Amino acid sequence: MSNPVFVALDTPDLEQAITIAKSVRGHVGGLKLGLEFFCAHGHHGVHEIQKLDLPIFLDLKLHDIPNTVAKAMQAINMLEPAVVTVHASGGRAMMEDAKAAANEHTKVVGVTLLTSLDQNDMGKIGYQGTPHDQVERLADLAREAGLDGIVCSGNEVGAAHKIWKDGFFVVPGLRPKGGAMGDQKRAVTPQQARNNGASLLVIGRPITGAEDPNAAARAIEATL
Ligand SMILES: O=C(O)c1cc(=O)[nH]c(=O)n1[C@@H]1O[C@H](COP(=O)(O)O)[C@@H](O)[C@H]1O
């Protein structure tokens, strides 16, 4: 992947998503569509964004019983996404069935610990140990289940890379130096994440919320 940045088009407004995508084309490697966009526009919206001719990352974070997740995966196969997310905490059988149901050329990656959570939040939802422990535990499980990789923060991607040499590592929660954190709690810079071994960088608001998204995307590209 030449440019590892996928811009997160987190908006329910189709025209706005197209405008932003057009403005950053040439300075990102792909487009990420998530729950906000997909709930508003479904398959039709994905087809409209595909007209821009960039790889599509469909971030649906599937998390349910294995049968339901496999059927949901089958229902998006015709969209031929480059990457799809499931929650690794859905368990090994769920991940196995998700991967088995996906298109051959779709990378299925497991979200380990959301980048909006820190150690304090982990305790409250009953997770033991540190974010590193959780990411490594679920990276092992995702690999055993046959997934292509995981989603984790730039803090843990180096350690995850060591235990899964040929894994595909998606890193969101990225902020250029001094950028507003918003709801992200385990953020690093795009450059740090890349240096730590990220394969794909997900960047939303630092680009889409900028006064000039094209300039923001170019500035990030220049640091990589
Ligand atoms: O799977 C993801 O992409 C994801 C996982 C995660 O742990 N944290 C996370 O922020 N994301 C997504 O990455 C994007 C981050 O957006 P910004 O914080 O605006 O850059 C959003 O679309 C999130 O849904």
UniProtKB/TrEMBL annotation:
Residue ranges occupied by any Orotidine 5'-phosphate decarboxylase domain in the UniProt entry: 4-220
Annotated NCBIfam families: PRK00230.1, pyrF
Keywords per UniProt: Decarboxylase, Lyase, Pyrimidine biosynthesis
Coiled-coil stretches: none
CDD domains the record matches: OMP_decarboxylase_like
Self-association state and partner proteins as the record states: Homodimer.
Example of a GO MF term: orotidine-5'-phosphate decarboxylase activity
Protein name, UniProt field: Orotidine 5'-phosphate decarboxylase
Catalysed reaction equations from the record: orotidine 5'-phosphate + H(+) = UMP + CO2
Positions that bind substrate: 10, 32, 59-68, 115, 175, 184, 204-205
Record carries keyword Ribonucleoprotein: no
Lineage: superkingdom: Bacteria
Family from the record: Belongs to the OMP decarboxylase family. Type 1 subfamily.
Gene3D superfamilies: Aldolase class I
Cross-referenced InterPro entries: Aldolase_TIM (IPR013785), OMPdecase (IPR014732), OMPdecase_AS (IPR018089), OMPdecase_bac (IPR047596), OMPdeCOase_dom (IPR001754), RibuloseP-bd_barrel (IPR011060)
Active-site residues, record numbering mapped to chain: K61 (proton donor)
Pathway(s) served: Pyrimidine metabolism; UMP biosynthesis via de novo pathway; UMP from orotate: step 2/2
